[in-house]
């Protein structure tokens, strides 16, 4: 049984930082690409960033230079460091095993102006 448990969301002022964590179980974590998606109110869920088993990463243009994805294979955990947050980053953020239909429960990030 695959479980993804996110934590670290919250309310922050514009320009602030948050770090999201996603602890995975039930998969061979080191062999899977992991991603973070987000869904803002009234909008479709969108891919924010991916980290591959090799450590290769890619990012949505709107977060490049502000967000950093990383992974700790020893802890089966993927992180999303979010800096210089903007109100438009407000969304529910979901952890995902890329290319497989496994999702976390989501964590709310709210950025106030």
Entry keywords:
11 strands; mainly beta; 113 residues; four-stranded antiparallel β-sheet
Structural notes for this entry:
The protein has 113 residues and is mostly beta strands. The chain has strands spanning 3-7, 10-13, 18-25, 34-39, 46-51, 57-59, 67-72, 77-82, 91-97, 102-103, 107-112. It is globular. The mean pLDDT is 97.
Note the topology:
Blueprint: E1 3-7, E2 10-13, E3 18-25, E4 34-39, E5 46-51, E6 57-59, E7 67-72, E8 77-82, E9 91-97, E10 102-103, E11 107-112
Parallel strand pairs: 2-11
Antiparallel strand pairs: 1-3, 3-8, 4-5, 4-9, 5-6, 7-8, 9-10, 9-11
What spatial form do the alpha-carbon principal axes imply? globular
Q: Which regions contain 5 or more consecutive residues with pLDDT less than 50?
A: none
What string, H for helix and E for strand, traces the elements in order?
Answer: EEEEEEEEEEE
Main sheet characteristics:
7 strands, mixed
**Strand share of the residues?**
over 45%
Question: Quick gist of this model?
Answer:
By secondary structure, this protein is mainly β. It is built from no helices and eleven strands.
